[in-house]
Design a protein that fits this description.
The protein is an alpha/beta fold. It has 2 domains: 226 residues, Type I PLP-dependent aspartate aminotransferase-like (Major domain) (Aspartate Aminotransferase, domain 2), CATH 3.40.640; 124 residues, Aspartate Aminotransferase, domain 1, CATH 3.90.1150. It contains 12 helices and 15 strands. β4, α6 and β5 form a beta-alpha-beta unit. α1 packs antiparallel against α8, α9 packs parallel to α12 and α10 packs antiparallel against α12. The chain starts with 14 loop residues before the first helix and ends with a helix.
Length: 369
């Protein structure tokens, strides 16, 4: 039976290196609570990502929730319907109300030209996703937020190592969050990080992720347990040693897909800008014209014949999930582009050791329709 090919597969370091350091953890008996590997990883990530105020946490969802809590947000938060459920769940979990704004058809990010008309007296922040690692229009969003005195959070779950004009995009906004989930370009099995505008916010994040405990005798705020354990921290240190090579391989795969699909007039490919350093976290394509109606056929055909699993990522839209569908801003009239894109999108497999034969099979099926 053929091995299953999913849209992503995690990179992993050599097992013997991990076991060597695992023995050190076993001997030390330090498993959590900001242990030595946790502290080392945080410093190394700050260096690699060129971000001074970074706090590593247990997962990307907690990173978003902690970001909202650290900024004391209470009210309406403008966001995108084209993202992973964690984005809008974090808004909901913290007692805030999501306000959906349509997306840009080229970047799949929130359409910055539509943000201002969604602002009311209840609006307290903008939570925008850098979808598939495509940077948002940071300057325009900043000016809007400044004018209306709003906070900015960027869900940068897909954005490990991405830079624009040689500057890390994780420095944008009041807070950026990132995921180290197993499906991401860089993983620690589970994990994530909060990148803060200044040290004051980072100190608050550090308190919130550890029950609000300041010291053995003082609990100064209502926190949770969102610390990253020692094993995941140790793994993350090893992953940093191989991440650059992994991203280079992902780039080659993206280039091969582009070469094989670029002449298909029924497909729109992602546009890579020259001033951006990408990590090639996903390879989305948009099916056009007659191919749109054949999306499920293409997915089913590759699954049945080749055991290859494509994803309609992101479909359904967050605004079409039952728990958010009654939100007044979730109407299809308000989100015309997002609804259109969600019916056309397919993400193709991309990970460092993806075989070229698999790429050819996928492209052959798509091009033959």
């Amino acid at each position: 039976m053929k091995h299953k090919i999913f849209i992503t597969k995690p990179i992993l370091p050599r097992l013997n290196l991990v076991v060597r350091d695992l023995k050190k953890i076993w001997n030390s008996k330090i498993l959590t609570n900001s242990g030595p590997y946790n502290k080392i990883l945080e410093k190394k990530l700050c260096n690699y990502l060129s971000c001074n105020n970074l706090s590593i946490v247990s997962n990307g969802t907690d990173a978003l929730i902690l970001a909202i809590k650290a900024l004391n947000l209470k009210g309406d938060i403008i966001t995108s319907p084209f993202s992973f459920p964690a984005t809008v769940h974090a808004i909901n979990w913290t007692g805030n109300t999501p306000i959906f704004v349509d997306i840009n058809p080229n970047t799949f990010n929130i359409n910055e030209d539509l943000i201002e008309r969604a602002i009311t007296k209840k609006t307290v922040a903008i939570l925008a996703t850098n979808c598939y690692g495509n940077p948002c229009e940071f300057s325009k969003i900043y000016l809007i937020a400044k004018k209306h005195k709003l906070k900015i959070i960027y869900d940068s779950s897909h954005c490990f190592g991405i830079a624009q004009a040689e500057q890390s995009i994780l420095k944008k906004g009041d807070i950026s969050t990132i995921s180290f989930h197993a499906t991401k370009v860089y993983n620690t099995f589970e994990g994530g990080a909060v990148i803060c505008k200044n040290s004051k916010i980072k100190k608050k994040i550090d308190l919130l992720k550890n029950f609000g405990i300041k010291n053995e005798e003082k609990v100064v705020c209502c926190g949770v347990n969102s610390k990253l354990n020692e094993f995941s921290s140790m793994l993350g240190i090893h992953q940093l040693k191989i991440i650059d090579k992994a991203i280079k391989k992902r780039k080659l795969i993206a280039e091969e897909y582009t070469r094989l699909l670029q002449n298909n007039k029924n497909i729109n490919l992602i546009i890579y800008k020259k001033n951006i350093k990408y990590n090639y976290s996903y390879f989305p394509i948009l099916l056009q014209k007659s191919l749109t109606k054949k999306r499920q056929k293409i997915i089913d055909l590759l699954k049945k014949k080749e055991n290859i699993f494509l994803r309609k990522y992101f479909s359904p839209l967050l605004s079409n999930i039952s728990i958010y569908a009654k939100n007044p801003t979730a109407s299809k009239k308000n989100l015309i582009v997002a609804n259109k894109i969600s019916k056309e999108i397919i993400c193709l497999p991309i990970y460092p050791d993806l075989d070229k034969n698999i790429i050819n099979k996928i492209c052959n099926v798509i091009n033959s329709q």
